[in-house]
Amino acid sequence: MAHHHTVRRHSRTRRSRQGTMLFLVGTLLLGSAACGGSKDSTGGDGARKVTIGLVTKTETNPFFVTMRRAAENAAKKTHAELIALSGKFDGDNEGQVAAVESLITRHVQGILITPSNTTGILGVIAEARRQGILVIALDTATDPADAANATYATDNFKAGRLQGAYVRTVLAGRAPKLFMLDGTEGSTVSQERHDGFLGGFGIKNDSPAIRGRANTNGDRNQAQAAMENLLQRTSDVNSVYTINEPVANGAYTALAARGLTRKVTVGSIDGGCDGVHDVRSGKYAATVMQFPVRMADLGVAAVTDFARHGRKPSGFTDTGTVLITDKPVRGLASRSTDWGLKHCWG
Fold first, then answer.
1. 245-263, pLDDT tens digit by residue?
2. What is each CA distance from 234 to 177, 253, 264, in whole angstroms?
């Protein structure tokens, strides 16, 4: 998974909103007919029909693809209908605002959202709640957190701290020379993981040990380009922080082109199956697994319970973190890639 940068609130023209809405309609994913195709007020088992909205940051990142599929499966099991929408890219606040507005007009009982902009989304969340819709943040808390009814997410500071502590231990007393590949400026998740890493690594944000940093929007290609640019300034680096596994993969590609992979320890966060395979093959030393399926399952269950029984969840629920590596270090609990491949997602 807060950024203390000032978050810009984007103004929108009516025309741009309509354009975004058309995109969102094009990406609409409905549950199967058995999960809500009927327009009756009850499902096939006689229980009240429940319609749930899911708004992810993107529809292409493997983490959010997994979350969407898990939500679809959970909705089917509870005879609910799922409407899945997303932004166009990580950081697309306007797209997410338009998605929530669309879900409000569709009279959903609950909205599950992974906010790209943790303050820019607040107005439309407040409107949804005013209309009696339960709003649950997944993966990323709103700012403030109580703007949503509840949050089911990774403790992103802890995930960053695990990565940082591991990478620093692997250095075995060598002076750190660190590159930091962050996510999206203004993102709570990006800031919490960044700050956690520094805490675990044992340095401050202004430390000369940080030889370079860049924002990557969590994207593999942007990460590769960013790493290439950093390496043009200096190749004297021995450790790399990455916001997620696509970024770690892009960083590895750039390091491999320079013949630096054996000299540099790369850590990451995600726990996708591709990422665990990358740890096993030595592309990076460790990753911190998180659990998007658990987030989706909890979210769908909470909305269904609210719609049918009126019970509202509240507060933050930590959905878990596990350090995955085949090179364990003293003082840090970890699991092997064998375990990781049995519990990974994607």
1. 999 999 999 999 999 999 9
2. 10, 17, 13
Within 8 A by CB and 6+ apart from 265, the residues are 167, 170, 171, 238, 239, 240, 284, 285
Report how many domains make up the chain.
2
Joined together, the tokens standing for residue 7 give: 């978050």
Lookup: tokens for 70: 């898990």
d(CA 264, CA 167): 10
CA separation, residue 100 to residues 12, 129, 141, 168, 208 (Å): 15, 11, 16, 42, 43
Q: In a 3-state reduction of DSSP, which class is residue 322?
A: strand
Q: Does residue 2 belong to any structural domain of this protein?
A: no
Task: Identify any residues that bridge with 324 across adjacent strands, giving them in sequence order.
Answer: 287, 335
Q: What is the gyration radius of the CA atoms in the chain, in angstroms? A: 21
Domain limits at 337?
156-289+322-343
Do 147 and 184 lie in a common domain?
A: no
Same domain, residue pair 209 and 304: no
Same domain? 234 vs 141: no
Say whether both 164 and 225 belong to one domain.
yes
83 and 228 belong to one structural domain = no
Q: Could you give the CA distance from residue 60 to residue 299 in angstroms, rounded to a whole number?
A: 21
Residue 208's pLDDT is what?
97
Residue with tokens 């933050």: 316
What is the rounded CA–CA span in Å between residue 274 and residue 252?
A: 14
**Residue where the block lists tokens 């679809």:** 72
Based on the fold, state whether residues 303 and 205 are members of the same structural domain.
no
- 281, 163: one domain: yes
Model pTM? 0.83
CATH number of the domain that 309 lies in? 3.40.50.2300
3 part of a folded domain: no
| Residue pLDDT, tens place only, 11-52 | 334 334 444 443 443 443 433 333 333 334 444 444 668 999
Cα–Cα dist 57/13, whole Å: 21
Contact 326, 336 (CB under 8 A): yes
Beta bridge partner(s), residue 85: 55
